[in-house]
Amino acid sequence: MRNSINGVDLRALQAFVAVCETKSMTEAARVLGVTQSAVSQLIASLEREQGVSLFDRDFRPVRPNAAGKILFEQAGALLEHAQAVALNVRAAAKTGVANLRIGCVDSYAATVGPHLVRRLPEKAQDFSMWSGLTPALSEQLVNRELDLAICTEATLDPKRVELRPLFSECLVAVAPKNRRNSSAPVEFQQILRELPLLRYTARSVIGQQIERFITHMNFYAPRRYEFDDTDPILSLVAAGFGCAITSPLCLWQSRVHLGDISIVPLPQTRLGHRHFYLLTRRAEWSDVAESVTRESIAIVRDVIAPSLRSALPKLPPGIFDSYAAKLDETHVAV
Q1: What is the CA radius of gyration of the chain?
Q2: Is residue 328 one of the residues assigned to a domain?
Q3: Among the three residues 221, 246, 272, which one is the final residue of a domain in this structure?
Q4: Angle at 275 between CA 226 and CA 263, to 5 degrees
């Protein structure tokens, strides 16, 4: 593979700079530790690539012409940048990954994220984490603004992006805890006749997933109240204003409201699950991705699930299902 940046051969550029600095092909060859013939060939190759002559060959000692002067002024910065990249790559290979950028959906960032941050320093010298919606995170990954993305939808080109399933969670319904006759078992359809449904907006993947589930279950609920975030939804449910369909991670994300809500059973269907995936560009960050996968599954299994069950004992069984067969040797439901 040619060692080049934007069509400029770095070896030829290094030879060009040496000739400009020493004003001699012979001296440049000595500095670089190659033959004079090799320097001449590299300069000729550079001139062919650029489509211009770079030296005024009517003068001795050799000196760059107008085009060569412009290239010489900018060549130093290019070579310094290439050297810095090489040093960073070698340093990362020896001591761990540097400057890792992770993007996550909000519910993951607010629940699993803090635990992951404490566990990752062994794998990364420096890393950043921020949250967003799945479509934006996917685009940032493809545009190389992110190194890893944790999303709830996987629609990117599999030839460019590698997908690792993490875990799934079942959708749950919530209603105000002080709702009348709250001690008697009741179906969610009945609650919808008494209280308005508070929805996530269709801009979010969870909003789209819940809408498909509602349609599949033939639940009737006029579109009146829609929110981007979980906190205002659960706040209004806790205040007795309405009911909602959400997920376990979203519940834990806004756990300050858990004491004022009650869980309402929902039918278990394929559409009633929300899936989490770790996305990376192909052949990049594989070791770190494996670590993030393991840690994510362990955090959900050992920290989030027990805490949620303690706060909401009436949660249905199997609220989380991890794709841990290759990692933990068993398929884990918690």
Answers
A1: 29
A2: no
A3: 272
A4: 55
Q: Look up the CATH number of the domain holding residue 65.
A: 1.10.10.10
How sure is the predictor about 331, in pLDDT bands with cuts at 50, 70 and 90?
Answer: very low
Same structural domain, 200 and 238:
yes
53-74 pLDDT, tens digit per residue, is 888 877 788 888 888 888 888 8
pLDDT of 88 strictly over 70: no
Same domain, 38 and 130: no
Residue 244 domain boundaries: 169-272
Residue 99 has pLDDT above 80, yes or no: no
DSSP state string for 69-88? HHHHHHHHHHHHHHHHHHHH
- Identify the residue with better confidence: 183 or 134: 134
- CB-based burial, 125-150: b 16+ in 10 Å, e otherwise: eebebebbbbebbbebbbeeebbbbb
- Cβ atoms of 42 and 50 closer than 8 Å: no
Angle 314-319-320 (CA atoms, 0-180°, nearest 5)? 150
Is residue 324 predicted with pLDDT exceeding 50? no
Q: Using an 8 Å Cβ cutoff, are 250 and 319 in contact? A: no
- Are 51 and 134 contained in the same domain? no
Give the residue, 1 or 268, on which the prediction is more confident: 268
